[in-house]
Amino acid sequence: MRKIAIGSDHAGYEYKDHLIKFVLNQDCELIDKGTYTDDSVDYPDFVHPVAKAVVSQEADLGILICGTGNGVAMTANKYEDIRAGLCWNTNIAKLVRQHNNANILCIPARFVGKRMATMMVHTFLNTEFEGGRHKRRIDKMCAC
């Protein structure tokens, strides 16, 4: 059973709550890293636990949600072994997994509907990395 870590700020809280139900119905174990209300919070406080869960292999994949998706993606991508992809449709969600081996899906709650967010999560969870030439490119990503 795959383990999925999820987190959001206040702008993504309603989507997170919605997506939790969907992920649990996908035969996945879910690790909810917060936030737990729609009160204003700082998104990095919830990104770091999700990213750390993926890096430590406590979780296989992660999902992060904020208003634009940019803040959570930028923060998560500070981790060497994280490849967080900001997506706004299923085609991009598929390609970030196939070509970039993304391990965190970032969703812009203020710019996609819940239905699209759900379809992106479904696509992200059910798409495999293609490897090959894409592996060579991923190996060149780290500037450390």
Give a short summary of the structure.
The protein is α/β, with parallel strands linked by helices. Helix content is about 40%, strand content about 20%.
Task: Present the secondary structure layout.
Layout: E1 2-8, H1 13-24, E2 28-32, H2 44-55, E3 61-66, H3 70-76, E4 84-86, H4 90-98, E5 104-108, H5 114-125, H6 133-138
Helix pairs in contact: 1-5, 2-3, 4-5
The overall pLDDT average reads 95
The helix-strand sequence is: EHEHEHEHEHH
Note the beta-strand portion.
15-25%
- Major sheet details: 5 strands, parallel
Question: Could you tell me the radius of gyration in angstroms?
Answer: 14 Å
The count of domains is 1
Approximately how much helix is present in the residues? Answer: 40-55%
Regarding CATH, which class? Answer: Alpha Beta
> Given the helix and strand composition, which structural class is it?
alpha/beta
For the secondary structure, the number of strands is 5
Terminal-residue CA separation: 33 Å
Inertia-based shape = globular
CATH topology: Ribose 5-phosphate Isomerase B, Chain: A
CATH architecture verdict:
3-Layer(aba) Sandwich
How many distinct helices? 6
Determine the CATH superfamily: Sugar-phosphate isomerase, RpiB/LacA/LacB
What's the arrangement of strands in the largest beta sheet? 2-1-3-5-4
Poorly predicted residue ranges: none
Summarize the structure in words:
With 144 residues, the protein is of the alpha/beta class. It has one domain: Sugar-phosphate isomerase, RpiB/LacA/LacB (Ribose 5-phosphate Isomerase B, Chain: A). It contains 6 helices and 5 strands, in the order βαβαβαβαβαα. The protein has a 5-stranded parallel sheet with strand order 2-1-3-5-4, with helices on both faces. The longest helix has 12 residues, at 13-24. The mean pLDDT is 95.
